[in-house]
Design a protein that fits this description.
This protein has 177 residues and is mostly helical. The protein has nine helices and no strands. The chain binds zinc ion.
Length: 177
Amino acid sequence: MEDSYCWGYTGSGDFTTKSATWRAHDNLKPAHTSWKFNWIWKLDVMPKIRIFLWQLCHKALPTKATLLQRGLHIDPVCPGCHSEIEDTDHLFIGCHMVKKIWDLAVSHNWISSQSLSLLESSVTEGLHNLHQARDQSISRIALLLWSVWKSRNAMIFANDVPQPMGSLIRAKRSWAE
Ligand SMILES: [Zn+2]
């Protein structure tokens, strides 16, 4: 047999028993076989960014709202603005703290305001729409989302004061890697 197969269900493309079992199980439920975010694995960014996007689009990132839903007794209010619940959309686009990062990325011509406008209502739907539109900014937006998450974690776990420019620079550095 001449054909070669790329095993598409692990980040590396390698076959693993675990992913095969998961895939076989998934085959029992046809509705779940084609996840609309599978394009993430082909995005030209580092594997760690793809894994982050996978978690984000699976609504699996441990935001405060998610942890609360999982039964943890925590205060779900956003640590950045202290005024709204920290769910995925608030954390990445709604919070006035994070809007400064996006504004900076646009004013530095790193992403276009048109691309950013696709993210306005929902992060995950926005990413899907950017992919559908074959938007050139999608990798840069992915890096910024990842950088926002890193800044947020540094604020919570290391008491770092959020610096919008720092978040943009981190994303730009990852682009160059
Ligand atoms: Zn906030």
